[in-house]
Each structure stands twice: as C-alpha cells, then as structure tokens.
Amino acid sequence: WFCRDIGNELESKLDEKALDESLFVVVNLLNNGPETTDQEQCVKLCSLNLRASQKALGVSSFGTAALYASNGIKHIGNVGEAWMKCPELMLGLHMTGAKAEGSIGNT
Fold this sequence. Notes:
The chain is mainly α and 107 residues long. Helices cover 79% and strands 0% of the residues.
C-alpha cells in the first residue's frame, strides 16, 4: 500500500520537470503497489509506464523499456475494451514494447 501512496503523492506534487527527472522512481513505486480497479487511475498508470518505457528506450535501456511497456499493458485491464477507450495509449505501449523487445532480440 505504501508504495502506491508514495508514488501517487510524488506524482501529484512534482512539477513536470521534476517528474521527468524522477519518472523511473515514481513509476516503480506505482507499479509495486496494489492493483487498482479505478479506470482513471489505471489509464494514468499506463500513461506513466508508456512515458517511462519511451524514456528508457531513448537511453538504450531496452530491457527496462520492455518491462515498462509490459507493465502498462498489464495494468490496463480488459485489453479489448482498452483498445476502444484508449487507442493511442494502447498503440504506444505495444509499439514501444515491440521496439524494445526487438532491440534485445525477442521477436
């Protein structure tokens, strides 16, 4: 519980620049917290995982990028419904995950 609470607190209090600098820490805290059933929280968590995945991909940390993309997809819940409600988010997670997986030799 505490991981999710601390992650939420940091995410809500940090400005955009500070959040970007602490993105991996915040997302790791949120990912290690208990599952949430709140759809808005799930979408926010998935968006943060996509952002972390893209950032990791940008610094050639392909395994980390793949993990964040996978976590984002896992947290979205019903995948079919997610594609209908958040197509850009789902496309981003899958494309970034595919790039990362391909970069580490997984096809």
